[in-house]
């Protein structure tokens, strides 16, 4: 290509690179390439942007669109063939890494009564949020947990885990959330199939909830050294009750209404090192203000209907819909009901951003904190 | 006294001091005293004991003995005169520091409906455990908490606090627990009376419970930097329920049955830096094994009846009785009922022992782990 | 393309996805694409690899190759045009993100006496390792540090910083190391030019070394809350002396000889949250064993000559050469001298791997721990 | 005694106890005593003081007074008889616990060339500061350290340790500092004589200094999980050099001149959990301002001469003298030379005060921060 350009990122700003191609320079650049090197000034403005510009785009996935496809997968492939029957969310800007947004993977998995996935473990961390059906369960390192709609469960990195639906249950669909793209990017992805394809349940069912799910109380005996929450399962009912109680004594967040983080009860920190999760309640008629921050978020509508505005575009949502907010994009939420609350479950990589001092946040200053809808 | 002896602690063991008085040495010792000095070998075996020997003695305080005296105080002194109408527990071995055991103070306080103590703060940390009555409340730095029987509440060091009983309540009696003797020993005791003798309630009543009392959930907004639990109040009902749930999935501790620590939900650690608290359930017919550890404990019987054996002596207890276990004394507990559980509330200085690497523990090896009752 | 395939990643292993394309399935996949979704089983084996396979390749950059190009840049571009005159290392597998390896950027920067770069700050973290010349200095948030060959200095994220060479110095070349690719990948890159293009030196020169560079001692007065090492500069002379002293009392690491991490003296942890650095000494004739671990490393030869074997390929190095080891590739090092030690400076992203529980390590089991050279 | 009084602590201040004895009340109090109980209002003002009033008194121990007695002990008792030949400092207010001040023990120990104390361990933590002689050494868990004048060494709780002087050394005297009184008060004192009365040196001599005594560097291999500093020995020469360097870039503390804490290089925290140590330099002619804080301090004059004012009393000191400052007493220091610096070594229980949130500090407000000398 005779017209190759090297000076495409130049900026005419003091302190920024601003070098125009000349024949001598171009020859110099070509010479450098032989030594696996280049001139920084040609890429400096590209790799040192003034502020983040996400490769992801905001997307809303309607449950009514996806549900039938998810259910059809049951007829199309067996669990043995597919490993897991999952339809994953594929952000147009992140198809190279199969991410729903940023470095987060998400998919909708279906399972029929009596089915179970084979047990495996991986260096990725995972979570599930139950969308419909009864009888679902997850086993983590011998701890079996039964799951109902809107329950949230962890399958952390390094743990043997498997999912299933009991014989007396109904067809179940849940959302999976994983940091697979991130762990792959970090070149630290390991995967192992359990030698028996299935693990024994070696603890009483739901023992983690009985041991660790008591507010302000901790067993004297049970030690826990693993770097994630021992609670593993967070049920919907006490979560909704917690938000309702908390709502009575707080004005809430201007950006998120009544919002709580799921936590590791032993540290007060996030449930896992690479992914956190939250549940928020938008009060009847609530319209929050816009802010933006680094880090990516995937939301699922746990209750109610409304809309969110993300970088100037409106996304209408109803129960079970999923949408994402890419890094450093303004977002605000609106409860569409004037009489009932709406609840949004979300998971995100904010624990990574905070652990590495990369969390930045900014409120929208103009227009009383509300975005102009441009799309 | 012409026959003063200096060699009273000598031991005939290799590595221990074993110096007998001689006229020359005695003169040498007397000379040293002029310079505020002494010979270590005369006290070495005293100040470096082979193992701890507590100055405290085990004591059981029967509620039926003390209750009438506590109630009589109402007729004998006014709150204004007395500051607080409290009968304190005075261990025979610790009367010089007014301690119930070790460095822990405890007393029984009474208050009539409509009464309130004046607001104050101190560098000591305090807790209360409600014994009887309705309408009790505590205010801590503007947070008001309502309290019922077996509820446990913190008034940490440095916090303005006051106690009262509402007009529509009944006469209330509660146990106070403080580290006053310890803080005095550390020569760090400060005390201040609130300038208005009373503080304003600036938060919604019981807000701390709504904000921090949700298992596995934490408000995103509320930051807390103070070195003690933000939960402040721990109610009896969810505590008893937690023990009951936990009992289903654990064999329990051989020494304590079903035992849980009250915790700071933001750290998983003790409720305050100098005092921890626990609740334990002895299952019907349970007889635990004996162990001993450093640190002092004060128990109150929250439910049921039974007995404990402390250093070979049996102490029978029933609901509301209080007893103490001094440092490094063997102790085991017996539920007197074969059909109902018994519950023991306790508070202790184990957080101090652990923070300073002074916690040691030992199981009784002989007699299948059970003490021979010698008294 | 009429022959598009979806089943290219299938594996015939229990627990892995193994679904072959059928016309019905292909139609199903195409339908899903309309909804920004896909079937997991088509990508599962790709995104859940059995173990990491780095996109980077091992590279050695010879200083004798690059030095003349670095020096020529002085004639080709002005500091004002270029921002900084830097030749960056461009790994063949990572040219899309301008990385030397993994998510790490590195470049060689040159500066003439009397020159100074404009002051700026960014959310990326940076470090410099001086290669040649005298009179170099760096200013970080008002702290000026003078630098000589093999000195190592931090310019952490969020700090205003600038580099220069004093009038009485000589032409200086140093290696820059930054986490720019990582911070961009995390979509958290911010950049700011100092309003005055230069900052005032507001502390005594080299004050950080005097305050924090004393072994086992810490000023009582100086508080430091920032999330990186206050020491900022690590000089060559005491570092080499430290390795020499340490060598006297240790057998060293089988994989790295005598190796020490640069640390934050207030935490004992890495110098910055996203990048760590180490210096290691290979004793005369030393040939280490091979191991591999997650995380990427960039080495610079600070002293001596020898070679390293990386994934079966031999790379010969001499003083000032730079080479990289991608994630999960076996590597071992050989000192080429039988009489003198050799020293390797390195920086890496191991603090990220450790903070997020993604650090895995494995020794080479075969051939007495030594690789077979295949290239 | 017919005239026993109970109301001796009453105060006529709102919020304080102010109850006068009456025959009825006295009978009530006597009844309570039968049940190991008492009325709080009789002791409340005693046990809840407005501010700390130390039981210790300030004392200065002149080395010229004590040295001959220390040396004479060699003729008076054998090491086998005495265990250790130590003259301990016995504060007039703390003779019941053999403390030099507060809960800190201190003594001067002498040893002749070729002598060694028997190896032992205890739950108390200890430190030594060498005063005179050559050839002293300490062994801690197999690590042998050689010691010269003004060197400071740790023998932490739980570690086997022994002291000696080599055959080719001279008579050595050092100061011992221990938390024995505190550990006894906490009823956690354990003591063990080494089964062989002596332990093997299993590491290279002074290995800890070579491994951990390098500023800003940490061996990658050596892990350390013990709750105290791995450095163990802190030599005088680098300490003095550190103070001199630090003095160039700081104004110093108004209360302490140029002061640094000895630290654990792995945490930046104190050398042991219960005792910290510091070294400070008073510049020529320096006269610091007065402040007071909770916690007790023992000083030894490492260099120079001058005086300190403690609670209004002047104490003149010269090299090797020892003096103490009790909790919450104002103190200020004066270097007696206008040409040379003076250095004070000190150890204290401030780590305890800080860990338990009991550290309080106050500057003297009056008289430009200087005390009026009243004694």
UniProtKB/TrEMBL annotation, chains A, B, C, D:
<dbReference type="InterPro" id="IPR013096">
    <property type="entry name" value="Cupin_2"/>
</dbReference>
<protein>
    <submittedName>
        <fullName>Cupin domain-containing protein</fullName>
    </submittedName>
</protein>
<dbReference type="InterPro" id="IPR011051">
    <property type="entry name" value="RmlC_Cupin_sf"/>
</dbReference>
<dbReference type="Pfam" id="PF07883">
    <property type="entry name" value="Cupin_2"/>
</dbReference>
<feature type="domain" description="Cupin type-2">
    <location>
        <begin position="108"/>
        <end position="174"/>
    </location>
</feature>
<dbReference type="InterPro" id="IPR047183">
    <property type="entry name" value="GDO-like"/>
</dbReference>
<dbReference type="InterPro" id="IPR014710">
    <property type="entry name" value="RmlC-like_jellyroll"/>
</dbReference>
<keyword id="KW-0560">Oxidoreductase</keyword>
<feature type="domain" description="Cupin type-2">
    <location>
        <begin position="279"/>
        <end position="344"/>
    </location>
</feature>
<keyword id="KW-0223">Dioxygenase</keyword>
